[in-house]
């Protein structure tokens, strides 16, 4: 074990359950590099939606830590993923972002690859050059209900198939495979990736989200016994809305029950269909739908929201008229990319079926507010006065995330 790994091992062993992590977990370069290898290079990572890749040849790239990966739709309309490294002299094969087209052409020496990764053309090689020895290095890729995940490990976590089989019944009625990307934002937050994830896993701070709290109940994460007096009126509204939504879900045959396995397994996840406040249709100031065309063929817009959280880097909200996906990608110890994508019905037209500003308003504001909170947290955990503090009962999902994360570090330390 290297000196850096010994430091990390000691920190893992010393961590006090129910308390935030020690400062180096959020600030130290060695810890960050180990996060990439123990978590992002081992686990299934959410990176795209199938709507990013509607046609053969469509591709997108994703980057985290030192890795860059191409995800594409091949000529047979299947999903493929490859390391974004030319097999000639290692140049980045494609620039960041999305593109359409057929073959993959390196911008350095024009080595050309098919969408299945095979090398088609390498100019001016020797007569005995064997192109079959220089295929692109593949990466595991899976589509789950219209969401795209990759795994860099040679042997991905074996439980992913089971998790996919449990969450797909919740996703499929919304037909996310047949959607269109209405908008995407990329926000670089001034904080460690774990602070971004932890912030999303609790509503203890939700009074800082006035736009979101028009429809999102502020009692998220609280048990009946823990709801404070100031939130009791909202809780009573929630109970009434929840009873109505359960009747709707049952009548439509939609799965809605909570499945929460955040810390117990390699592919930690949480999924639930739940009520929204006011009109109960969407994330808008009055809770009414932001888009006139609904996802799938569901007969009513009043469906509350389907919430999915997946370790280590993603959460999702699906409402009757659109879906929002969030992907967290670590850049440096104190910089994290939050990529947010809004999906609408494939035939929905901007300016006709929806107003773009209305569609984006709530979560754009919420993301920006969260980014400021994450930056404040990063400043604090990097200071000499910081010491881990206790989680409140409503922050139990933050504790679950930390427990899951530390288990992944322990597994890597034992390899």
Offer a few descriptive terms.
alpha+beta; 8 helices; 17 strands; Naphthalene 1,2-dioxygenase Alpha Subunit, Chain A, domain 1; seven-stranded antiparallel sheet; Rieske Iron-sulfur Protein; 2 domains
What order do the SSEs take from the amino end to the carboxyl end, as H and E?
HHHEEEEEEEEEEHEHHEEEEEEHH
In this structure, how is the largest beta sheet organized?
7 strands, antiparallel
Structural class: alpha+beta
Could you give the order of strands across the largest sheet? 11-17-16-15-14-13-12
The CATH architecture of the largest domain:
Alpha-Beta Complex
- The portion of residues assigned to helices is 25-40%
Mean pLDDT: 96
Distance between the termini: 10 Å
- Count of strand segments: 17
Give the helix tally. 8
Beta-strand portion reads 15-25%
Shape: globular
At the fourth CATH level, what is the homologous superfamily of the largest domain? Naphthalene 1,2-dioxygenase Alpha Subunit, Chain A, domain 1
List unreliable stretches of 5+ residues. Answer: none
CATH C-level category of the largest domain? Alpha Beta
Number of structurally distinct domains? 2
Under CATH, the topology of the largest domain is which?
Naphthalene 1,2-dioxygenase Alpha Subunit, Chain A, domain 1
> Rg from C-alpha positions?
22 Å
